[in-house]
Amino acid sequence: MRIFNPPRNPWPRSIWKANIVIVFVLVSLGIASISRLATLVFAAAGDLDPTFGVNGKVTTNFFEGAGVDAAFATAIQPDGKIVAGGSTQNPVTNSADFALARYNIDGTLDTTFGSGGKVATDFLGFDDSVLAIAIQPDNKIIAAGYAIDGFNFESAVARYLSNGSLDTTFGNGGKVTASSVNMATAGAVQADGKIVIAGWGTGPGADYDFIVLRYNSNETLDNSFGNGGKVTIHIGNDFAQGMVIQPDGKIVVAGYDGNSVATSDFALARLNVDGALDSTFGIGGKLTTHFAAGAEAVALALGSDGKIVAAGFAGNGGTGDQSFDFGVARYNADGTLDNSFGTGGTVVTDFAGLGDLAFAVAIQLDGKIVVAGMDGAPDNEQFALARYNADGSLDTAFGTGGKVTGPAGEAQAVVIQSDGKILVVGRAFIGSETGWDFVLLRYTVPADTPSGSDITVQSGNAALTFADVSVAGTTTVTLIDPATVGQVSGGFAVSSLLSYEIETTAAYTGPITVALVVPDPISEEDFNNLIILHNENGVLVDITAASPARNYATRTIYGTTNSLSPFYVVRKGQHISTLFDETKAYKGGSTIPIKLRLMNGNGTNISSASTVLTARGLILIGGNTSSVVVDSGNANPDDNFRYDSALGGYVFNLRTKGLASGTYVLSLYVGTERSFLYTVKFEVK
């Protein structure tokens, strides 16, 4: 039987989720002598990524034994780590609690987060669930959803520090509830740090309405927004499910209006920055879209062109569990349906004549749309994805005819990584020993590389132009942990989201022009200090190109090389200087005093007690094995370096007990920044 479905509305087939999508712009390139024929064999677009988890799949059980764990939301941190949220069945109370898990880029649990990579949080002693996740610029994690007080649903928001502990400066011990909203189904953090959640609750009449709340960064409601921080939007009987914040600060909310799928319509509304309905959108700031047999919008995404995509499920005239198909609509910036998409702006997709429910949507840099959900009857559900071209037609290069199904389970959220790979989270019944678990799947998206001259291919934030391709193939970009490179000469900071392994099966002639789009936020000064390093036979070579010139407007930096292997984007200027003997081999079990100074671009020591350095983790070079950083004694609480005024720098007493012999890289952050990390190297014998 189907169990532990977080209730979303009066109809049992609807399942909660929330989706936040960040879209970057990729520019085209040009240019490009050395001949190279690769012998690599890659998966096709839509195949599971073998570099993630076990053959592309990760499952997570929160408590020992058979319980019910379900992931409904995901977000990617500035350092590339993956946060998944949902609910877990507390084995003591048997009720559901907020559940968060954090994963490294390769899908392993990040043991620096919570307990073994997992965190469970109770609110009011009854059922709670995360339905949306947003990451603040300082890497604090916002989780929003619902809590039950015994009788009623309330929206619930929790804020966590980067180590997984609750942020006690937020609300009541890190938690906030609001009875005016039955539950928060979507959430986002504005550029100014204010927190926006959307959901639904009882309106002035007997019907439900969209409700949007905006909190200041300290959890108090923002009185400059709506009525005391709250906006109620009435269309009919309305349930908000998804939300995006536009670059201009306007807030778009999507859901549905109606009393059953057969009588429901997609419903959208857009608010100005102050919470007033935007009269330039739809009719008075609101709109509905009718599908022939009814529909419910569950997810929302914003394209780089300003167009808005809503996804959910549409009735197909059938009965019971076979009565739904994927439903997608695309709108122009003013709320009118985009007639260049599908039929009059809408698309309905059937998988196999069974019940098809879409819960998540994301837009690739090339404008293709990925929709994720489930296909099948109850107890036989399987993950289901569809990818659409910009005109709404199914992309036949993806999966089978544009669709991918399996393994068993339900997809609830989807996000596009900076390398272009598709990450999906959800839940599945794994077996009698663990019950229902979090499930994460990652799909490959290799770029077709045709033969010819000046061939440009792109994947995520990376694009390459080959001078000549003599034999066609595919090119794959894979995000890697920059700590695996070892210490970058000069102690400069390495970008967490722009370290890639790039490979191709095509036979090509170089040089190759590489273009990497740098995710925001980044200042123009920092952008101008970026260089691209290329790993050439173990030596890091600066391949940054003067032409084409870097472009801050598009956040694009260029490099020229003759071969493909790992690339790293490094920020010059501020750097670390080591004050311990990195050439010494330290005895296993000993304590290594890692001593550093923080320097500016002119070589001046800028170390101070007010700037905090935090250890991120250890990697064994060659074995690529991650380890938790452990300090000796209590000198380094919260994995922070201790500032030593006599030294004019920082100290971390690193314990090596349990570490195998070899060369290690310790990675660390400076201040609250997480988009770049610094590395130091040491050896254990």
Quick structural overview:
Helix content is 1%, strand content 48%.
Task: Characterise this structure.
The protein has 4 domains: 43-189 and 413-444, no CATH class; 192-408, no CATH class; 448-571, Chondroitinase Ac, Chain A, domain 3 (Sandwich); 579-684, Immunoglobulin-like (Sandwich), CATH 2.60.40. Helices cover 1% and strands 48% of the residues. Strands 30, 33, 34, 36, 37, 39, 40, 41, 42, 43, 44, 45, 46 and 47 form a 14-stranded mixed sheet that branches. Strands 2, 3, 4, 5, 6, 27, 28 and 29 form an 8-stranded mixed sheet that branches. Strand 8 and strand 9 form a beta hairpin.
Task: Produce the secondary structure layout.
Elements: E1 35-37, E2 57-60, E3 67-76, E4 82-89, E5 96-103, E6 118-121, E7 128-135, E8 141-148, E9 153-160, E10 175-178, E11 183-189, E12 195-202, E13 208-215, E14 230-233, E15 238-245, E16 251-257, E17 265-271, E18 286-289, E19 295-302, E20 308-315, E21 324-331, E22 346-349, E23 356-363, E24 369-375, E25 382-388, E26 403-408, E27 410-416, E28 422-431, E29 435-443, E30 447-449, E31 452-459, E32 462-471, E33 473-479, E34 492-504, E35 507-517, H1 524-528, E36 530-536, E37 539-542, E38 556-561, E39 567-578, E40 585-586, E41 591-599, E42 613-620, E43 625-627, E44 642-644, E45 649-655, E46 662-670, E47 676-684
Parallel strand pairs: 3-29, 40-47
Antiparallel strand pairs: 1-35, 2-29, 3-4, 4-5, 5-6, 7-8, 8-9, 9-10, 11-12, 12-13, 13-14, 15-16, 16-17, 17-18, 19-20, 20-21, 21-22, 23-24, 24-25, 25-26, 27-28, 28-29, 30-33, 31-32, 32-35, 33-34, 34-39, 34-47, 35-38, 36-37, 36-39, 39-41, 41-45, 42-43, 42-46, 44-45, 46-47
